[in-house]
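Pilot study result, target chain (179 residues):
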Amino acid sequence: MKKGLLVVIALLAVASIMAAMAYTSARVTNPATMAIVNSGKAFLRIYPSFTQNNPGTSYKDVNVFIDEDGRFKFDFTKGAWGAGSVGFQPGSRYEFEDLFCIYNGSKDTVRYWLENDGIEYISIKAGNTYLIKDGVSTGNKITLGSSTGTWYLDVIFDIPEDADLENISGNIIVHSEAV
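Predicted structure:
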């Protein structure tokens, strides 16, 4: 009886190993529907602060805006009301309180965090939590409740005295996950 049981166990073990070795990858295709939409209709919406009944500095200087394709953009080279061309001088600090906001339009509570891709000297914070500090993503995450959560974000530039006179461009990438 014991010998027969050992044979059955051994056969099951060998069959399991063979099954595991036989399956290395699979591709399953299922129909799906999605839409690429502008920033104002996305699950995680990004707005200039003035569109949320909070007329911040972005309104006067047109530093953040939704472009003709519906994409949210920063432009710190525009003067007051979008006229002229300006910039930041070395040895200076600029703070834009409540410059833009992030709104959770989904039914889930989400966490979001920011990644900086190429913009020097920038810091972005939500309340007292830095998401980007001195150009480096901190990894800090902010939680937004379902369909009601909005965070206003401050943008700060600390330009060192020895900064090169140049144009700087890059991307701020917003990541999110359901919690």
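One observation from the pilot: The domain at 39-178 is CATH 2.60.40 (Immunoglobulin-like). A full batch analysis is planned for the follow-on phase.
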